[in-house]
Amino acid sequence: LALTGVWLALPSFCGWPGCLGTAALSGQSRIALRFRSGFGSMGGHSNEGSGSSGSSDSDGNGLGDESDAYYDGYDGNNLRANEGNPNHPSFWKKLGIDHRPDNWKAYVSFVDDPIVMSDLRRQADERPDDWVDPATHKRRRGLLEFKINQAACRSKEERKAAGRDAVKVVDAAKKALGGQAMVLKNGSQAKKTDLNTSDLDLKIAGTQMTSQTRSLLQQELQRTFSGKVEVTRKGILRVQGESGQLCIVPMRADFYDEEFEATIRLGKNDFEQKPEARKAVRAVKVKLQEAGVDVKGYKVECAVQKAEAEYPDDDFYDLARRAMDLLGRERK
Ligand SMILES: *[C@@H]1O[C@H](CO)[C@@H](O)[C@H](O)[C@H]1NC(C)=O
Ligand SMILES: CC(=O)N[C@H]1CO[C@H](CO)[C@@H](O)[C@@H]1O
C-alpha cells in the first residue's frame, strides 16, 4: 500500500469545520436530549431498581440489559419483592436511602437503628445523582469496553477493501496531480478513535490544490469510482468507496476558507498518548450510534478533549459520560 508519511490524525473531514469549541457544538439540542437520557443507564440510576426497571432500555441503548441478572433473579417489576431484598436498591429506598450502601450487607442488621440509618441517609444524599456503586460501575465499564472493541473491529475483508480504495486514490492523485502529490492517511482511523462505520480520511500533501486541479482529480477518481464522487461545501472530495465513505482532503488549497485551512494545518494527534480519551471517543460514538444519532466525529473528539483537560485522571468511562454531558449542555 503506497501510503506514505507518519500517520497522524485529525477527526473525520467530510464537512468538517474543525474543533471550534462551543460554537461548533450548537444547534442540535433535540439530539442532545435524546442521548442524555440514553446515557443515564451508562452511569445513571435507572438501573438501580426503584421499581422503574426497564426504563433505561426504552432508550434503546442496551446498557441496561444486565440489571435484572445482577439482582439475582429478583423480578425487576416486582417492587414488593425488591423492597424485601436488601441486595436491591428498592429496599434502601424504602428506608429513605437513595442509593444502596456500598457495604450494604454490614448494614442489614441495623435497619432498625435510627442513628445508623440517618447516617446512611446523609451519605446517600451527598452523592451525586448519577452515583453508582463500584461493582456496578465496573460491570458497566466492562460491558461498554466489550462493545467498543466490537464496534471498532473491522474484518480482514473490510480492511482489504479500504486498502484497495486507498490504492485507487493514490493512483488517481498521481495521475491528476503529478508525482509530487502524496496521499496520507489521516483522521479517526489513523487516530484510533474510529468505529468500523467511520469514514476513511485521506489527505493530499505535496501540492497546492486549485479548483482546476481538483477537477482533474475528480475526473480521475470518476474513472474508478464512477458516479460516486462529489465536492463538498468546504471544497473537499467525497467518494463512495468499496469500503465506505472516503474523504479526500488537500492539505493546502486556494479554495479553502481561512478557518478551515487553519484547522487542517493544525493537525496533530491529541490522542496519541491518551488511550483512555481515545477509548472515550469510541465509547461516545458507540452510544450515539446505538441511539441512532448522527454527530460529527470531531464534535465528539472536542467534547472528550475538553472533559479530559478538566479531569485528566478519569478513566474512559467517566470521560465518556462527561463528554456526553458536555455535548448535551452545549447544544442548548
Ligand atoms: C462492526 O461493528 C458492529 C457493531 O457496531 C459489530 O456488530 C460488527 O461485528 C463489527 N464488524 C466486524 C467486522 O467486526
Ligand atoms: C491534520 C493532519 O492532517 N494531520 C496529519 C496528517 O498526516 C500528515 C503526514 O503524516 C501530517 O503531517 C499531518 O499533520
TrEMBL record:
Annotated signal peptide: 1-21
Claim: Signal is one of the keywords in the record: yes
Composition-biased stretches (Low complexity): 44-60
Domain of life: Eukaryota
Record region (Disordered): 43-67
Record keywords, A-Z: Signal
Protein name: Uncharacterized protein
